[in-house]
Amino acid sequence: MDQGSIARILKQASGGEDDIQQLQKALLDYLDENTETDASLVFSRKFYIAQWFRDTTMETEKAIKSQKDEDSSEGTHHAKDIETTGQIMHRAESRKKFLRSIITTAASQFSTLKIYSGTVDYEDACLIVRYLASMRPFAQSFDIYLTQ
C-alpha cells in the first residue's frame, strides 16, 4: 500500500474523525460526486455504507462475546479487557453515528446543490478501496486460509 498517498488523502480530508472514517467519507464523497456519470456508483455507495455498518455491528458483537467469555474465566487481566471492550464499544457507536449521518445527509442532498470538494480522484479512490479492504478480517487472514 502507498502509505504516502494515504497520508496525503488524510491530510486533504479534514475532519475530527479517525483515519478510517476520513477515508470512508472521502470515498463516499467521490462516489456521490460521480453518480451522474455512472449510475452503478449509487449501488456501490449504498453497499459500502451497509457493509461498514455491518462490520461495526459484528465488531461490537465480538467485543460483547469476548467480555462474556472473560467474565466466566475471571482472569487477572479482566479490568484491562473491560477497558478495551469499552473503547471498542465507544468507537463502534461513533462509527455507527457517522454512517447514520452519511445516510441522512445523502437523502437530503437530492434536493440541494452539490458542492464538490475535489480531494479524491479515481486513482485515490482505488487506493482507498484497497486500503479499506486490507483492513477487513478476511484480507488479514488470507494467507492462513491459503496455507490450510
UniProtKB/TrEMBL annotation:
A Gene Ontology BP annotation from the UniProt entry: brain development
GO cellular component terms attached to this protein's record: Scc2-Scc4 cohesin loading complex
GO MF term (any one): chromatin binding
Bias-annotated ranges (Basic and acidic residues): 63-83
Annotated spans, Disordered: 63-84
PANTHER family reported for this sequence: NIPPED-B-LIKE PROTEIN, NIPPED-B-LIKE PROTEIN DELANGIN SCC2-RELATED
Descriptive protein name: NIPBL protein
Lineage: Eukaryota, Metazoa, Chordata, Craniata, Vertebrata
